Amino acid sequence: QVQLVESGGGLVQPGGSLRLSCAASANIFTVNDMGWYRQAPGKQRELVAVIISGGSTNYADSVKGRFTISRDNAKNTVYLQMNSLKPEDTAVYYCNAAVVDPMGENNYWGQGTQVTVSS
Length: 119
Prior knowledge:
It contains no helices and eleven strands. The protein is mainly β. It is elongated.
């Protein structure tokens, strides 16, 4: 069974930092793209950052220069280093992974981790 387990969320003051982790238990299957999304109450879920298996990355304009996505392919784990956090970064952050299994390539989601930026 493919499962994504997230950790690292919490409460932080503006200007602070957090590091999110997401480990994909993909068994024998191949993990391709991995990414982070976030969703604030009443808002659409939006892409924050994505990293492909080869290492190239893309970021939402709102987080460029502040957030860094990385991955450890041997551990099927993706990280999101968040610096210079702002109140508008407050949201539930969800990990996503594209996994090739017998049904083809499918996206799987983590359980979500709350990030709250407030003084």
